[in-house]
Amino acid sequence: MKNFKFSILVVLVGLFTYSTGFAQDENEVKNFRMLYKLSTLKQADGSRILEVSFIARHKKDRKNKVPVFDAEINFYNETEEDNILLGTVKTDKKGFARLTIPSSQELIYDTEGYINFIAEFEKTDALKRQKKSIAVKELFLDLNLEEIDSVKTVQLKAYTLDSINNQLPITELDAVFSVKGMLSNMPIEEATIEDGEYEFEFPTDISGDAEGIVDVRVFIEDHDDFANVIQEKTVNWGTINEVKSIEENTLWSDAAPIWMYIVLTILLVGIWANFIYTIINLNKIKKEGAELELNTEES
Amino acid sequence: MNLENRKRELVKEFSPLLLKSSNLSKLWMGFLVLVILVGIYAFFVQLFNGHIVTGMRDNVVWGVYIINFIFFVCLSYSGAFIGGVLHFFKTPWKNSVSRIVEITTVLSLIIGPIFILLCIGRLDRLHYLFMYPRIQSPITWDIIAIMTDLIGCFIYLYLTFVPDFAILRDNSEGMPKWRQKLYKFLAIKYQDTPSQREKLHKITRTMSAMIIALAIVAYSVLAWIFSLTLQPGWNSSIFAPYFIIAGLYSGAAVIIIAMYLIRKYFKLEHYIRKIHFIGAGVVLLILSLLYGYFTFSEYFSRWFSHKIHDAELLDTLFSRYFWKFILANYIGILVPIAILFFKKLRNIKTITIAAVIAVLGLWLNRYLIVVPTLETPYLPIQDTREEFIHYSATWVEWSLSFAGIAAFILFFMLLMKLVPIIPMSGIIDNERDGKKLKRKK
Question: pTM higher than 0.90, yes or no?
């Protein structure tokens, strides 16, 4: 609790620092509205992330947002009988608290097949209690990358399971297929899944890494029933880009830049041509002298 | 007077310089040989024991040798530059100093590179420089520049010697036979006919222009060996012109000293006159002002930038090397300026003193460019021993340094025994031109 008080102090100092235009009383916590959100993402390996975003926003100056740092968030799996504590995580400097639930974790479903999650922040001296819940159904995405008749084909099967593990295909599901990049993902297909299946031809001009490997992923975003779901697979369907070697003047380079050879050659040819010209003329002088000597001897 | 008689008369006048040696001169030459022998002994000590006998270690990998190398090579380039300018622009008083300049050029270019060889730890791998040259390396540029410049300077020196060799060949009665044969061979049947004279003048003039250009290129390459590194104290865009000015400054000073010594000990007051010293003194004054300006710019920009490594270097210069810094960059520049600036102070002795101060100051300046920089490296060497960080030259290095200076003086004296230090052909040309002018009037 001591830590948390300290955090509140940090928040207040932050508020003071970031909103210098306000009078001191303006920086009090009461002038801030707490934005408390819960979201969930099912990852490719079946694990699930529960994420809380805890931000304080000034009531008048809505641009003035301060993350609530070090706030303790309890994550629960809500059941009809009791709430099962899944874990407790503190918010980071950006006001986020993330809990990863491994795929092996058994979760309790309600009668309609939803998993109910609760993220709760308990009341403190300075801040009010915050609580958010979210209900999601378990969505299964089978991503299959296969060459069919020499055509690189991406196939997706989306379904849920009923109580006896029968697959129930999903209809009207918007999905975005993309290729993972270094900084962001590049969309390659936006699709609406009908009858639980979708397939398309993988583009032939997507560059991969040094071995042509690409990460293909499908993303279901903000769905009412399934929230966020990701599935991905790796395949060597990317084109291999030749690494262009840039000619640099380095200690370890095999050869010098061409301009260096040209300049040096011009200089040396110019100088040596002059040396040769001088020697030729000296030879002429010698020849002339020899002829003169011969003439003198003859006469 | 008949031209042939005049030539004979000049040979007669200069032959004591060529053929006779005074006891003092013999003693001096003996001393120089002794210094060279000590240097040769030191060389073998270094060869058999390695660089451990020198003050050079992991941090300071260059010491007195490289300073001597820069000094001599810059001296040569400045000699080439000055010689080229004197000839190309047909400077009126060039005849009295041109041969001193030309001999200085060639000899210092022979002596200088020997010092760089002494810096090499594995001389047995020297041929790798030629077998596996890297065009992108300033060291390779320098090798090419020095070799080309050496050949160019040799050719140029020879061109200026040819008419004198011819005069000596034609008037060598009474001289030893080997001399007669040597002059005959070197004179390449030059008879001083108008056609031969014209050809020789043409190629000498072209070569003099070439030598100026070559000296500028070679100077710059030498400066780039330092300035193309990231070392604080070396990484400077003005290093190439700075080296050119510094080289010219040392060159002009050494020529003045040589003029003074030759004038005094060979009694050539008739040819090397006060007016020549005054002219050279004014040149030295201009160069000292330029050199002072460049030195100030160099250190001022380092000081003003407040970069950590530059600040460290300046701290070293103003603490450990305080007196050397004062001697090099204050005394070595301001005293020559003070002496040469006032007309009343300019006489043969003061100009020579200014030149001596300039040479010593410049050598110290080179020392300050090389050693303190290496003692404050850009990338610190870890776990190095305290005694490796600071450099002080050993007796081996000093012996070889003095041997280099002794060899320079000895070869200078020997060359003066081969051809007169005042070009006889130049005297005749001047007289011929004088007569032409009189006729025109």
Answer: no
